[in-house]
């Protein structure tokens, strides 16, 4: 079945992103070797903590996140301190760091789920393609369609079928013609590399799948609403190694179309999967801050900061 | 060795506690059996016709339970009609929407309502609520919808409608507290999943939370119904105590419990008392059945929620 | 291909859409606000009856509350009198019921926590829950057939027993819930030291969970104090003050309220309000004391 995957580029876009490969050929893709780092070394950049994507004018600018001076608090407890970070579009940015340093909190400031916690506050600015997502004219409900999220433990809706799970986000904005829904559901499941496994049982309950399949279902669900950015909070940490690998392969595919920010405590995963990595840690005031951001290859082979080097080489204490 | 010296006390302890536990089961069975036995003459004389007979005539020795069964069911169902929407929405507010500083005291207050003795509610119902209802709600119905037979006047305050409102007030805390617990038990990850898709709070509640809480909420409603069916004093004081099947919303009526409460002591030992006990047995059967169903439903929801967290 | 599949253009995704409120967005926002408002209104409606009842009982009860009420025995037909018989009756029957019912309930709760296998514990718990849900008037009939009919005599003991039957399952459940909160490690530590099961149960488990157990007992006590139906066919009520003669009918506050509320005389009705104020005060104070404590626990 032919699926048209080329998006319609708006007039001001420099170039259309390449379509991801033919989804039907999924089974024949060569798997990545876990150890080798594929990203070619970058020219040395003198920036101290971060370089904005502005130095790559030829890259498409849709789906770019610029975080400046971000503080995030739960009541009087400051969880994040003065975060400056640029998230490149159509790339995978990994957030690594020890437990409790605010990685998940950071992720949730990006889709404004942080503020759902009573007493939680945010200071600073987060811009998505030059739109301040905390601006008064932005509806957080709308924002979360543009910036989607996948959670650590797969959480499909247990009262819904696989089909209904994927369609859940779309149905929020009203009823759609069945044919249109069918198309989106199939397309999303294909993008999540799940279609072949579930196409004959779309009306079975979502929880009848294995853990890894459930997570891909949740990814399909998130993709179905057509976001620009997909946030992933340790998406494979609850899965077995085989399922984890499939998720990582999936991420490599998805980055051609979406901006991906992935929090992971698994450094090897970060090295395998991401283009850029940001290393967070916890300061003496228990607030998290960014130690270093750079290309993944650089972070893991020749980091600038001592703290980073200690962390990635496994030295702690 | 050590056990030998402590053995008698240990044994006594075990026997006492086991005895107490058995006593509870024995009580339950005993009540059912006793009521059945004591009412046997009535069942022998009237058979199932007791439940469908429409006249309770002591003089002529004819005993029919239908007016009271209808009164009981009608007042309870009407009470549900009022209490369920208010109760479920309140539970949603207390469990999902209210900030902590508001939710905790409000929940406390709602639970406190359950502690008010039935007879006090009845007293208030007779002298405060019924006149109020008569002059406001009932008058409105009679004036504007009185052409429909069921809403026709006259409305005296005292009657089926007031009883339903009083019952609704009494079962609200039951419905709210159980529904609230069931909603809180829904795993947070479900809400997050829906919110992350760009849902509003209302949509999250309606599409992610309530479907999971559904059987528990139904259990709460059935428990509330069970409570309404057995409620005695407040209903007795406001329902009007008329031994006839009610045909209008504002009719006076009689429930099984109110019939027993008002006539038992004057009843003659014999078929009259036996028939009142038979009424009681009928009520027992209905409330027991409902109670069992409700508890199973509430437990199923708790199991579901637990399964979600681990699975 | 429709505009929905794959990378959606600005109409359904993308940055520009962040700044545009479509009609469906406005509808959803409106519905969200409406829904939440409805829920808030419902919650307020729940509290209104409580306030209304308390306020009216306070106002009308204050009018009927005087020394006469507390000290004079009942006189019907609007001739004055007071609730002394009822007050004294409640003061005898309810504590007696608690004396009988509490040990049974606590012991049964101890059984399910300490000895109950899963099956038996479930059965007993189930039976207790069902017992709690039995209409109290049926308990009254049961007590009548057992403790009144054979003696052809309404009596206060039967009333106490009926109340005890109501108390037992309530206390059993609250005891069980409180004791289950006691960490198993405490129990195991005591047993490992060689303390026999019965003493572990009493001195360790029960003592640790005591505040919860006592709270449950107090709540059951307050409930029994407010029960009318079980007393109608057992203790019957009595216009004469009865102190100590448990083999004869005895009045109780709830009975007093019930009877006087239905009298056509304003003086009797006023006494009913006064008695209701006394009863409500007692019940509310006990409930606030017991539940208020767990309120503060919940707040953390």
Give structural notes.
The complex is a heterotrimer of chains A (317), B (311) and C (300). Chain A is an alpha/beta fold and 317 residues long. Chain A is built from ten helices and ten strands. Helices cover 29% and strands 21% of the residues of chain A. By secondary structure, chain B is mainly α. Helices cover 77% and strands 1% of the residues of chain B. In chain B, strands 1-2 form a two-stranded antiparallel sheet. In chain B, a hairpin with a 4-residue loop joins strand 1 (56-57) and strand 2 (62-63). In chain B, helix 1 crosses helix 12, helix 6 (118-145) packs across helix 7 (160-184) and helix 8 packs antiparallel against helix 9. Chain C has 13 helices and no strands. In chain C, helix 10 (210-226) packs antiparallel against helix 13. Residues 1-13 of chain C have low confidence and may be disordered. Chains in contact: A-B, A-C, B-C. Chain A binds chain C through residues 3-5, 7-8, 10, 62, 128-131, 133, 137-139, 141-143, 145-146, 170, 172-174, 176, 180, 183-184, 187, 191, 225-228, 257, and chain C through 1-2, 4-10, 12-15, 17-19, 21, 24-25, 28-29.
Protein traits:
heterotrimer; B: mainly alpha; two-stranded antiparallel sheet; 12 helices; C: mainly alpha
Give a brief rundown of this model.
Chain A is α/β, with parallel strands linked by helices and 317 residues long.
């Amino acid at each position: 079945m032919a699926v048209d995957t080329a998006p319609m580029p708006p007039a001001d876009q420099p170039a259309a992103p390449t379509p991801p490969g033919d989804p039907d050929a999924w089974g024949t893709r060569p798997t990545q070797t876990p150890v080798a780092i594929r990203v070619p070394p970058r020219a040395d950049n003198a920036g101290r903590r971060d370089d904005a994507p502005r130095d790559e004018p030829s890259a498409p600018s849709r789906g770019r996140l610029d975080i400046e001076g971000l503080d995030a608090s739960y009541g009087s407890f400051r969880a994040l301190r003065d975060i400056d970070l640029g998230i490149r579009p159509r790339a995978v940015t990994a957030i690594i760091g020890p437990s409790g340093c605010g990685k998940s909190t950071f992720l949730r400031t990006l889709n404004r789920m942080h503020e759902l916690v009573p007493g939680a506050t945010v200071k600073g600015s987060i811009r998505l393609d030059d739109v301040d997502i905390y601006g008064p004219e932005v509806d957080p409900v709308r924002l979360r369609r543009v910036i989607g999220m996948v959670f650590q433990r797969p959480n499909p809706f247990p009262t819904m079928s696989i089909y209904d799970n994927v369609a859940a986000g779309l149905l929020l904005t009203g009823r759609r013609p069945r044919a249109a829904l069918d198309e989106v559901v199939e397309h999303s499941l294909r993008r999540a590399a799940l279609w072949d496994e579930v196409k004959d049982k779309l009306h079975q309950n979502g929880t009848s799948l294995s853990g890894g399949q459930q997570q891909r279902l949740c990814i399909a669900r998130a993709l179905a609403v057509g976001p620009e950015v997909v946030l992933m909070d340790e998406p494979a940490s609850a899965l077995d190694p085989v399922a984890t690998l499939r998720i990582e392969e999936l991420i490599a595919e998805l980055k051609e179309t979406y901006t991906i920010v992935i929090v992971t405590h698994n450094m090897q995963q970060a090295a395998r999967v991401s283009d850029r990595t940001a290393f967070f840690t916890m300061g003496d005031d228990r607030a998290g801050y960014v130690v270093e951001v750079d290309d993944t290859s650089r972070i893991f082979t020749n980091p600038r900061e001592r703290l980073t080097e200690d962390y990635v080489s496994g030295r702690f204490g | 060795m050590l056990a030998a010296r402590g053995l008698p006390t240990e044994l006594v302890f075990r026997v006492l506690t086991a005895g107490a536990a058995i006593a509870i089961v024995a009580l339950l069975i005993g009540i059912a059996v006793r009521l059945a036995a004591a009412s046997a003459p009535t069942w022998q004389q009237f058979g199932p016709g007791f439940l469908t007979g429409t006249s309770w005539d002591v003089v002529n020795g004819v005993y029919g339970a239908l007016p009271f069964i209808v009164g009981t069911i009608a007042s309870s169902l009407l009470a549900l009609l009022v209490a369920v929407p208010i109760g479920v929405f309140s539970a949603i507010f207390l469990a999902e929407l209210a900030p902590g500083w508001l939710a905790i005291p409000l929940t406390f207050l709602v639970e406190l309502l359950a502690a008010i003795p039935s007879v006090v509610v009845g007293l208030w119902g007779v002298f405060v609520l019924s006149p109020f209802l008569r002059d406001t709600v009932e008058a409105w119905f009679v004036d504007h919808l009185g052409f429909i037979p069921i809403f026709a006047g006259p409305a005296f305050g005292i009657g089926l409608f007031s009883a339903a409102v009083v019952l609704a007030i009494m079962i609200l805390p039951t419905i709210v507290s159980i529904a609230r617990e069931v909603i809180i038990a829904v795993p947070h990850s479900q809400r997050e999943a829906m919110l992350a898709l760009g849902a509003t709070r209302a949509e999250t509640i309606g599409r992610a939370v309530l479907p999971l809480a559904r059987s528990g909420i139904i259990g709460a409603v059935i428990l509330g119904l069970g409570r309404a069916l057995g409620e005695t004093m407040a209903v007795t004081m406001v329902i009007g105590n008329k031994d006839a099947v009610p045909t209008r919303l504002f009719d006076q009526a009689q429930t099984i419990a109110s019939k027993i409460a008002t006539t038992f002591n004057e009843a003659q030992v014999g078929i009259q008392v036996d028939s009142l006990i038979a009424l009681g047995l009928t009520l027992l059967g209905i409330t027991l059945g409902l109670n069992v169903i409700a508890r199973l439903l509430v437990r199923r929801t708790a199991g579901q929620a637990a399964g979600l967290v681990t699975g | 291909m429709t505009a929905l599949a794959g990378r959606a253009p600005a109409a359904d995704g993308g940055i520009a859409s962040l700044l545009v409120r479509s009609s469906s967005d406005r509808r959803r926002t409106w519905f969200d606000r409406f829904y939440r408002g409805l829920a808030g209104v419902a919650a307020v409606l729940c509290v209104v009856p409580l306030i209304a009842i308390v306020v009216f009982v306070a106002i009308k009860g204050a009018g009927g509350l005087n020394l006469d009420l507390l000290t004079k025995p009942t006189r019907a037909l609007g001739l004055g009198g007071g609730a002394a018989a009822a007050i004294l009756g409640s003061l005898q029957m309810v504590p007696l019921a608690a004396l009988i019912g509490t040990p049974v309930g606590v012991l049964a709760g101890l059984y399910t926590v300490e000895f109950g296998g899963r099956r038996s514990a479930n059965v007993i718990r189930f039976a207790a829950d069902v017992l709690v849900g039995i209409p109290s008037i049926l308990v009254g009939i049961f007590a009548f057939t057992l403790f009144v009919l054979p003696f052809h005599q309404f009596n206060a003991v039967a009333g106490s027993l009926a109340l005890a039957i109501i108390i037992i399952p309530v206390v059993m459940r609250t005891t069980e819930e409180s004791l289950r909160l006691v960490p198993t490690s405490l129990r195991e530590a005591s047993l490992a030291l060689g303390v026999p099961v019965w003493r572990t149960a009493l001195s360790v488990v029960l003592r640790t969970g005591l505040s919860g157990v006592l709270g449950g007992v107090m709540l059951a006590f307050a409930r029994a104090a407010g029960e009318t139906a079980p007393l109608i066919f057992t203790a019957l009520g009595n216009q004469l003050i009865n102190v100590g003669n448990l083999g004869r009918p005895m009045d109780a506050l709830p009975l007093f309220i019930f009877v006087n509320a239905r009298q056509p005389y304003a003086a009797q009705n006023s006494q009913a309000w006064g008695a209701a104020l006394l009863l409500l005060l007692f019940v509310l104070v006990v409930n606030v004391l017991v539940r208020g404590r767990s309120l503060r626990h919940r707040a953390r």
